[in-house]
Amino acid sequence: xxxxxxxxxxxxxxxxxxxxxxxxxxxxxxxxxxxxxxxxxxxxxxxxxxxxxxxxxxxxxxxxxxxxxxxxxxxxxxxxxxxxxxxxxxxxxxxxxxxxxxxxxxxxxxxxxxxxxxxxxxxxxxxxxxxxxxxxxxxxxxxxxxx
Length: 147
What we know:
It is a single chain. The chain contains eight helices and no strands.
């Protein structure tokens, strides 16, 4: 036989009744708690299987109406906060749209590069001559009249 089974043999001859009779009240309660934790009763619903571990005394009487009123007030507050948050987010969205609509429309450099160069006219030549020369050079500018 294996060593584990040999170890268990010594427990086969133990008298459980005698062992339980020698336990104190506290030890029996502790044993009962351990047994409940190890092997809970399957006939008891899951929510009731956990034993009550609180030693706290009740602070007052349970008032269902007061509790319902409190929940209703809290829900009203939450709904108001959600509405305010929704309104603020709408206002922020509107402001963003306004800012975006007021931004100057700048064409990308690629689009500007694709545009044909502007054509020069006689007026442009005259204005360039006026800006860049003295009164003596103005007399020499040719101006063509188009009819």
